[in-house]
Amino acid sequence: MANLCRENETAKSIFRRLECAVTPLVSGDYGHRDIAGMSSRISFSQYRLEAEIERCRAECQWDKIPPLLEQLAAARLHEQDDYGTLLLAEALLEECLLENVTLLKTSTPLSDQTQPKLAKAKDHLNSLLSRGRLEPHYLNEALLLLAKVHYVQGRYRDAQGMCARAGIEEFTRDEQPVYHLRLLAEAFVIKGLSLDHQTVSAASRVRLSEREEECLSCYLQACDTALLYLQELDKTVSTPSAKTAKSSISSPPVEVDPGYFLQAALQSAYLCLLHKGHLAQGTHQLRRVMRVMDSRGSRSFRKGVSRKLAEVLLSSVSEDSYWGPLSTPPPTWLHMEGATHPKETIYPSSRPPQLYSTEGGSYPRRQETQTERQEGERKDRKWPRMA
Predict the structure, then answer these.
(1) Structural contact between residues 183 and 141, judged by C-beta atoms closer than 8 angstroms
(2) Are the C-beta atoms of residues 362 and 356 closer than 8 Å to each other?
(3) pLDDT for 64
(4) Which of 34, 57, 84, 256 has a C-alpha 20 to 30 A away from that of 263?
(5) CB neighbours of 121 closer than 8 A, spacing ≥ 6?
(6) Among 163, 139, 166, which residue's Cα sits nearest to residue 83?
(7) Cα–Cα distance measured from residue 94 to residue 121, given in angstroms and rounded to the nearest whole number
(8) For the packed helices 28-58 and 2-26, what is the interaxial angle rounded to 10 degrees?
(9) Spatial distance between the Cα atoms of 303 and 285, rounded to a whole number of angstroms
(10) What average pLDDT does range 223-234 have in this prediction?
(11) Which residue intervals of the chain are DSSP H helices?
(12) Residue 379 in this model has a pLDDT that exceeds 60
């Protein structure tokens, strides 16, 4: 009996030594540290890649999306590839639109037969929606992208329906990615343009008036959201967040190509008012756009707005009827146009862009170059300034 007990104790001792030898590789403290280290590496890799993807989507750098998707697939960060399919569909769609701006400006529908990138993007989006595995915020993005597909193919009622299905309120919350503001601005203008393209019976004047007001409301919100998007994009480029700074190699600021829908979002509100002969409200909207705080992406657009404003004032506003830039249009002008208040007070945006509060603030200051600074310092040394 004593021998049997000793043999059992010896066997237990050997088992404990073997367990101690093997355990650090598969469990125990060392194993937990190894697993934690692996998960932290995966988390950082996912963090870096997704931050870089967000930046490219915000800056409309569609050619950089496919290489990032390859890295995402190699890292196997998503159990399903629906996220990557959504990004690929967006990149294909946006590249197609950039190649066909001329056709879009003339409202010429694009077809699957002549636009293979558009056909692939539409197939990807339809398959994503049929599978139904996307997370809610990605589902909203897919719906808005499909609304864009329907619009460029001339199916305006379907485009309007997709905008209605998407949860627009999800994009208006704070702390959303910058590219959500671009999607939101485009969604508003697509909805407005889709309504504009749909025919309404001439007998239904009430319905026609309601639709015109709904279109204008969409255009005003699209303009404000597009300007806010450019301002927020300028902030991320000028002062990158910790997420962006750690996620990618620092690169020079990128001049965003606005594309057809972002340009339409910026211009549709004042063009709609002026085309209807509402000079006072159109002028007020032009001035309001000029009061928006300057951003790198809006400078060329602001030049066009200032030219348009000068044309309207010189051709339609006399010296006696002129009103100041910070003032609202005279009530008599508004009454002639069938309004009591400027349209942006009737249809306020949930997140308006930042505005200059002074009259002279709408003229952006040009940044002094290093050569100009050196030249100025040289002149100061030669001709000291008087105190």
Answers:
(1) yes
(2) yes
(3) 94
(4) 84
(5) 89, 90, 92, 93, 96, 145, 149
(6) 139
(7) 9
(8) 20
(9) 15
(10) 92
(11) 2-26, 28-58, 65-75, 82-99, 101-105, 116-131, 136-152, 156-165, 168-171, 178-197, 205-238, 242-247, 259-275, 279-290, 299-316, 331-336, 343-346, 370-382
(12) no
Question: Rounded CA gap, 256 and 56, in Å?
Answer: 11
Sign of CA dihedral 371, 377, 380, 385: positive
CA 303 to chain CA mean position, Å: 22
Q: Is 200 exposed, middle or buried (0-12, 13-18, 19+ CB in 10 A)?
A: middle
Instruction: Copy the structure tokens of residue 165.
Output: 């299905």
* Nearest alpha carbon to residue 53 among 33, 73, 23, 28: 73
CA within 13 Å, CB half, 277: 3
Among residues 232, 296, 303, 230, the alpha carbon closest in space to that of 262 is found at 230
> In the numeric block, which tokens belong to residue 217?
């409301």
Tens digit of each residue's pLDDT (9 = 90 or more) over 161-214 = 999 998 676 676 667 889 999 999 999 999 999 999 987 766 577 778 888 889
pLDDT at residue 226 greater than cutoff 80: yes
The pTM of the full predicted model, rounded to 2 decimals, is: 0.77
Residue 89 vs residues 83, 100, 187, 218, 257: alpha-carbon distances, Å: 10, 17, 17, 26, 19
